[in-house]
Amino acid sequence: TEGDYRGAVRLVIQFREAGLKPEIYSYLVAMTAVVKELNEFAKALRKLKTYARAGLITEFDREDVDLAENYQSELLADGALLSKWVIQDSTPSSLHGVIHERLLAMYICAGRGIEAEKQLWEMKLVGKEADGGLYDIVLAICASQKESAATARLMMRMEVASSPQKKKSLSWLLRGYIKGGHFNEAAETVMKMLELGFSPEYLDRVAVLQGLRKKIQHHGNLDTYMKL
Question: What stretches of residues are PPR repeats (predicted)?
Fold first, then answer.
């Protein structure tokens, strides 16, 4: 049926596991279906979390979270399996960039920072450069998960970036830290932006100050707050 992305993915996998050999195009379509299903799933989860915060439904319990994570992991495993088969089936190397692009989209939709970062470099290795905006999205995901090494690697692009691009990347970095609740790092990013002559968005500054205020109430450390 229309929109049955998971069904399309499973169909291609079943064909392959039954000893048939789907066309390369079928694998790529199935990988796109994985991306779409992950995206729809992420949107549904965000909507449910919004309802939960508003008190319209009960909060997610551990079992709900585990079910969601397992479903997401199964989709990612399907996508990785499809990509492996594409490469195995004597794919022309010109398609390798497309495969890594699909994998990148999958990991971004699933919020998997480290895996997404790996695909950025894999794309580069096969001569396909990802859009700069995708680097920023992955940067924000890694920052939200406090993946310091990955964040540092992604920030190296800033050394040769134009001034507007630097501000854009730092803004994504800042929002990643805010989303992950890493307010000391967020505050450091605000200060770095100010040092470079960039003005962070008002709502971002407010979010950082509010986050730091809560930390002070719990831990009593005023240093970072006073610097801002």
Answer: 166-200
Q: Which pLDDT score is estimated for 35?
A: 96
Inter-CA distances, 192 with 18, 46, 95, 104, Å: 56, 31, 40, 29
Same domain, 122 and 149: no
Between CA 54 and CA 58 the distance in angstroms is 10
Residues 4 and 90 both lie in one domain: yes
- First and final C-alpha spacing in the chain: 54
Structure tokens at 120: 């950025």
Which regions in the chain score pLDDT beneath 50?
A: 1
- CA–CA gap between residue 151 and residue 11 (Å, rounded): 37
Same domain for 110 and 188, yes or no, is no
Closest-CA residue to 137 (of 125, 119, 124): 119
Question: What is the spatial distance between Cα 196 and Cα 182, in angstroms, rounded to a whole number?
Answer: 21
- CA distances for 97 relative to 33, 78, 100, angstroms: 18, 19, 5
* Residue where a domain stops, chosen among 103, 130, 157: 130
User: What domain range includes position 49?
Assistant: 1-130
